[in-house]
C-alpha cells in the first residue's frame, strides 16, 4: 500500500530538486552503487501507507544506524558485475564480451559471493533482528549448491583457469543468472539501509513512530527543514479535535518554509525514513497533497485563480471517497480579488474542517477570514510573528498561537528604495 500524492506535491517539496539544485533525495543519497541510488529514487517516489511496513523499515534502518555498519563492498565490484551480467541485454545488436571482460566478470562475481557470505555471517549482522528476512533471502541464495565451487574458490586468491572461467561463465550468465540478479537486488537494498542510516547519524535525524489509520494524529517537536543549517525548530500538534490549522504571518516571516518543513517531514515519515525533527509520531494517511507553487495552466488558457479552483476541486473529489488525507494550501485563492478570496477561503476551510479523518493546513494573508473561522471549534490558529526594530522588520520564525495582522510589505518596499528610484532615478 502506497501513499497517494502527485507531481505538484513532489515539486512543492523539492523532493528531487530542479536542474542543478539539490533536493531532499540528495540529502539521503549516500549510496555506494548505482543500483542503490536507483532503488532510493523509487522509494522516494512511492511512500508507504501501511503502519507495519513503515515501522518495519524504520526499525531496520535504526538498527543499522545503531550498529554503525559500513557498506562491505567496493563500488567497483558492482560496476564490473553489472557490465558482465547486463551489457547489451536489451540491445538488438549484441556484441560479445571480450575474453578479458568475461574473466573480470567471473572474478567479480566470485568475489561478490565470497564477501557477501562473510558479511551475513558476522555477529553484528546476525544480531540485526529487523534485517532477518533480507538476510535469510541472501543466505538461501548463497546456499544454492551451484554456487559452492565459486565460494570454495575464494575471493581473489588463485588465478582461475581458462576451463574454470568458461564453466563459471555458463553458470553465472545462464543457469544461475536470475539468482545473481536477486542477490544484487538484496545488496542494493542493503546499500540503501546503510546510506540512510548514515544520513540519520550525520544529521541527527530522528525516526518517527507510525500510528494506526483512523483518527488523525500529527505530533512534531522541533521540526525544521532538512536543507537548512542552524534552523529554528517548531512544535506542531494536530488531531481530531484540531484537524485544521489556519496560519498567518507577514511576507518573509517564514510561512512557506514552515509549511514545507512540516509536510516534508510527513512525506519522509511515510517512507519509514528518519526526519529533521526532535521527535515525531503520526497516524498513517492515505494521501498527502500540497499546493505551494501552483503554476498557471497556460495550456488550457487557465488563470492562476482557475488553476487554484481546479486544485481545490481535486482535493474535494479525493476527500469525498472517505480517504484520510493531509492537505496543505499556501495562500489559498491568492489569484483573485480580496473579497472573493475572503469568502472562498472561509467556505472551503469550513468544508475541510468537516472532514474529521483528515488534516489540513491553510495559510493566508486574509486575517479577516481567520477571525470569521474562529467560530469553528476544530480549527487552530498559528502565526509567525514580525518584530519591528526601528523601520526594519525582524523575524523570529517561531510559531505562536493566534492570528497576526502583521503587514510589512510597504515597509520592505520603502526600505529597498523602490519609490525613491521611481521618482528620482537610480543613484550612481
UniProtKB/TrEMBL annotation:
The alphabetical list of record keywords is: ATP-binding, DNA-binding, Nucleotide-binding
One Pfam family from the record: MutS_V
The protein's matches in Gene3D superfamilies, at most eight in alphabetical order, are given as: 1.10.1420.10, P-loop containing nucleotide triphosphate hydrolases
Q: Does the keyword Ribosomal protein apply?
A: no
Write down the InterPro entries for this protein, in alphabetical order: DNA_mismatch_repair_MutS_C, DNA_mismatch_repair_MutS_sf, MutS, P-loop_NTPase
Which GO MF terms does the UniProt record name?
Answer: ATP binding; ATP-dependent DNA damage sensor activity; mismatched DNA binding
- The residues covered by the DNA mismatch repair proteins mutS family domain are 242-423
Instruction: Name any Gene Ontology BP term.
Output: mismatch repair
Could you identify this protein by its name? MutS-like protein
Question: What organism, scientifically named, is this protein from?
Answer: Pseudobacter ginsenosidimutans
